[in-house]
Design brief:
This protein is 33% helix and 12% strand. With 214 residues, the protein is an alpha/beta fold. It binds zinc ion.
Length: 214
């Protein structure tokens, strides 16, 4: 990839701040907006997505998509001028999903997951700065055997994007169907974003699983 293509890709990956021609919810181009077709899933387990401020305008941020689908997911911003309210991270049954070699053994089921949304470096920084995170039981995921199409390569050490990580925990502790729906919506999101960028991937012609849920 030459410098011009890298610059072009970078510009395309950011949503304009006036949302010109872009859906302000899903960040896809207006003609490709996915919002009306997304499932709304009322999971039992809550998800708190602590998103680094630098992810705010990135089209490729997948925590945004997860929060559009899951009624019990919320995004909490970290960084910038605003103080961070860590009371949102407390409560019985709250676990932290954090890439690492150790896994905390659990006796009971989780009621809420905290997911750090950002590059691995940003996630490590959030973990270091937000003391409430370090008192939570931690769960780490293993790298997936297959790499699904993504708008960018995940920087996490477990090789998962945020929505994939959320799908993995909800699939494991609540319902495999929820995981399938999240992953199918993500595949369709990538397909539409690719289409608006004129990019075609032969293995991603249509998201059958996504269409099957409608
Ligand atoms: Zn939309």
């Amino acid at each position: 990839m030459n410098a011009w293509q890298r610059w072009l890709d970078k510009m395309r990956s950011r949503t304009p701040r006036d949302y010109s021609g872009v859906c302000p919810r899903c960040f896809l181009k207006i003609g490709s907006c996915l919002c009306c077709e997304l499932p709304r899933i009322d999971s039992n387990i809550e998800v708190v997505i602590v998103r680094h401020i630098k992810e705010d305008w990135l089209t490729s941020n997948t925590g945004r998509l997860a929060a559009l689908i899951l009624t019990k997911a919320r995004i909490v911003r970290y960084g910038g001028e605003e103080p961070f309210d860590d009371s949102l991270l407390c409560g019985d049954g709250t676990w932290l999903l954090y890439p690492g070699p150790h896994q905390t053994p659990q006796q009971s089921l989780p009621r809420r997951f905290v997911v750090l949304d950002g590059t691995f470096r940003q996630a490590r920084r959030m973990y270091k700065k937000i003391s409430a995170l370090r008192s939570l039981p931690e769960l780490s995921l293993s790298a997936p055997s297959q790499q699904p199409p993504r708008l960018r390569n995940p920087p996490r050490v477990d090789g998962l994007s945020t929505i994939e990580a959320i799908a993995a925990v909800l699939g494991r502790f609540e319902s495999p169907t929820i995981a399938e729906q999240l992953l199918a919506a993500h595949a369709e999101f990538v397909r539409r974003a690719d289409a608006t960028r004129g990019r075609q991937r032969p293995h991603l012609k249509a998201s059958v699983a996504f269409l099957a849920h409608h």
